[in-house]
Specification:
Elements lengths: L6 H7 L9 H8 L3 E3 L8 E3 L3 E3 L7 E7 L4 E6 L12 E5 L5 E8 L13 E4 L2 E6 L2 E6 L5 E6 L6 E6 L5 E5 L2 E2 L3 E2 L4 E8 L2 E9 L6 E6 L4 E5 L4 E5 L5 E6 L5 E6 L5 E5 L4 E5 L5 E4 L10 E3 L4 E6 L4 E6 L1
Antiparallel strand pairs: 1-2, 3-28, 4-5, 5-6, 6-7, 8-9, 9-10, 10-11, 12-13, 13-16, 14-15, 16-17, 18-19, 19-20, 20-21, 22-23, 23-24, 24-25, 26-27, 27-28
The structure holds calcium ion (3 copies).
């Protein structure tokens, strides 16, 4: 009667040569660090994958975005009431190793900058676009210099921004009025700059969108997570909600799709990040997160960027 091979004999059957870790590597791995290219020693070297930035000056951070060209993280800070036009919002620049390079890189307090309650952000060419109550603010991606903003008529709570493959900006209006009362303006808007002028249209509208929040553009359709139903839905170009998938908990905020096709959504009620499989199952990751808002993704390092809205923190978590 044959016995299953022991773990050691199974291992020895592999033909991959085993190279012992250097003492430095071993120490790094033991510390739970991730492996990235190292210029100093030609061996993999650790970049701390999981970091928590706190007490660094964030004020109600809503969204985090990786600018892969500059290789920096941008963090939008509402500071104060998310409904109030107080012109004190700001955007921070943070290095991937967790250093705040410039806390108020874009600063509403400056005379020439208007920024009230910045939320979702997206990069389109040389511009950074930011959702801000009823305006899409535009800035130079490299310098942070302000450009003319685009008003979204009737919007009450612009929330997430994404860029479609055809270069159109999409922005969700979560349909909240002061104090988070429903304003019934729930919508997804599409904005194109044509010959210097903004063309603004709604592609989806109605309370069945259930306070739409996180957006992500696919090749043809748009994907959205909502606050009130806790659903991940596809939105067709004609504005229909299709294939809704209810996640275990509601109050969904950020939505990320990695280039490899993995989907992640943050949930305030679930206090976690859900990974949504292609088969439609949801797995809770990084549980115990308080108010995880609009998540970003650093493809280079394979990490999620998770702002914690109420506690002014930013987490980096390897996935
Ligand atoms: Ca503010
Ligand atoms: Ca100002
Ligand atoms: Ca959001």
């Amino acid at each position: 009667m044959s016995r299953p091979p022991s773990p050691s004999s199974r291992r020895s059957a592999h033909r991959v040569p085993h190279r012992p870790a250097t003492a430095r590597q071993a120490a790094c791995w033991a510390a739970g660090a991730a492996i990235a290219l190292c210029t100093a020693c030609s061996d993999p070297t650790p970049v701390a994958a999981d970091l928590t930035l706190e007490n660094v000056g964030f004020m109600t951070p809503e969204s985090a975005l990786h600018d892969p060209d500059a290789d920096v993280y941008l963090v939008s800070n509402i500071q104060g009431d998310p409904f109030e036009k107080d012109d004190n919002g700001f955007v921070s620049r943070v290095s991937p190793d967790g250093v705040v390079l410039e806390l108020k890189w874009i600063d509403g307090a400056k005379e020439d900058v208007e920024l009230d309650a910045p939320k979702g952000m997206a990069i389109l060419g040389d511009e950074l676009w930011i959702a801000d109550i009823d305006q899409l603010r535009r800035f130079d991606r490299k310098t942070g210099e302000p450009k003319p903003s685009v008003a979204i008529p009737g919007a009450t709570f612009l929330n997430d921004v994404c860029v479609a493959p055809d270069g159109a900006i999409h922005v969700s209006d979560s349909g909240f009025a002061d104090g988070f009362a429903p304003s019934s303006t729930d919508a997804i808007w599409r904005v194109e700059i044509v010959e210097g002028a903004a063309q603004v249209v709604t592609i989806a509208r109605g309370e069945e969108f259930a306070h739409p929040n996180g957006l992500c553009a696919g090749a043809k359709d748009l994907f959205c997570v909502d606050w009130a139903r806790g659903e991940f839905v596809m939105v067709t170009p004609s504005g229909k909600r299709e294939t809704p998938l209810a996640l275990p908990k509601k109050q969904l905020d950020g939505l990320v799709r990695t280039p490899a096709g993995r989907w992640f959504a943050s949930s305030w009620e679930g206090e976690c990040i859900y990974e949504i499989s292609q088969r439609g199952s949801a797995t809770a990751l990084f549980t115990g997160l308080e108010q995880p808002a609009d998540i970003g993704y650093d493809h280079r390092r394979g990490r999620l960027l998770i702002p914690l809205f109420g506690s002014d923190k930013l987490l980096f978590r390897k996935i």
